[in-house]
Write a structure and sequence with these properties.
The protein is α+β, with helices and mostly antiparallel strands and 79 residues long. It has three helices and three strands; from the N terminus they run ββαααβ.
Length: 79
């Protein structure tokens, strides 16, 4: 699961993660003005599971290539 986090969504406490055991969190705030699709799509989905939306418009290699510089970390749900 991909979750965009940063100045646009508040804090990690705002992210609901029901029955999800692994989440990668990215702070893409610095990328907002450079996003080819505009910042509105990122801002409107911040703090949410954007996996399906992301892969609808991007190839998997995009997150592999650019993701590491924006990766905040992983959230793991305790079992």
């Amino acid at each position: 699961m991909l979750v965009f986090h940063g100045a646009v969504c508040g804090s990690l406490r705002d992210i609901a993660v029901p029955s999800i055991y692994f989440v990668q969190v990215y702070d893409v705030t610095a990328f907002l003005n450079d996003h080819p699709g505009g910042k509105k799509i990122i801002v409107s989905n911040s703090g949410k599971d954007v996996t399906e939306t992301f892969y609808t418009f991007h190839k998997a290699n995009i997150i592999t290539k650019y993701g590491p510089q924006y990766l905040v970390g992983d959230l793991a749900k305790e079992e």
